[in-house]
Amino acid sequence: MASTADIKNGLCMVFNHDIYKVIEFLHVKPGKGPAFVRTKLKSLTNGKVVDQTFPSGHKLETVRVERRKYQFLYKDGEDCHFMNDETYEQTMIEEKMIDNADLMKEGSYVEILFHADEERPLTIDLPQYITLEVTYTEQGHKGNTATNASKPATVETGAEIRVPIFINEGDKIKIDSRNKSYQERVK
Q1: Going from the N-terminus, what domains does the chain have, and what CATH number goes with each?
Q2: What is the rounded CA–CA span in Å between residue 87 and residue 166?
Q3: Which pTM does this prediction carry?
Q4: Residue 143, CB-side half-sphere exposure with 13 Å CA sphere
Q5: pLDDT tens digits, 98-124
Q6: Does the pLDDT at position 144 exceed 70?
Q7: For strand 18-28 and strand 36-43, is the pairing parallel, antiparallel, or unpaired?
C-alpha cells in the first residue's frame, strides 16, 4: 500500500477494479481546507484517461511492474510479435494496446511493461524519438516558407505525419512518438 505522498509519474495502481498508470499529478495545498492530489490516470487495459482527485493521505493499492526491453519482429494481422534479446522468448501483443503502433519499424526496440505477479504485458512504450525515412510527400514550393506551413508526409512504416514544407522524399526525420510530431531533419 502507498499513500498520496508516493504518487509520481509512471506509478501503476489498482483503481476502480482496473490497473491505471499515473500520467500527470499535482499536489495542491489550498489556503483553506485540506490538501489533495489531482491526477490524470490512464487505464492500461482499455487506454481511457480519467481525471481523479485524491484527498491527502489516501491509501492506494500499487501494482508491481517490470520494464523489459524487447525487439519488434513483425506484425501479423492485428497482432505484433516481439522478442526478448536475452532469453529469445517471444511474445505477441494486440496492436490496439500500443499507442502510435504505426511508428514501429521491424528490428526496433521497445519497452514492455509487465505485471510482475501475473507475468502479463500491460502496455508498450516506444522510444521517445524515432528516426524514419520519408517515402512520400508533395513537393514544396520555393518562397512559401514565411509562415509555419506544413504538409502531410508518409514515412517508411506507413504512418502519416505533418512535416515542414522543406522536407522531401528520402529525407530522414526525427519524430516524437508520444504525439507523432515532427522534431527535426536528421543528416
Answers
A1: 2-62 (2.30.30.30), 65-125 (2.40.50.140), 129-186 (2.40.50.140)
A2: 44
A3: 0.76
A4: 0
A5: 888 899 999 999 999 888 888 888 888
A6: no
A7: antiparallel
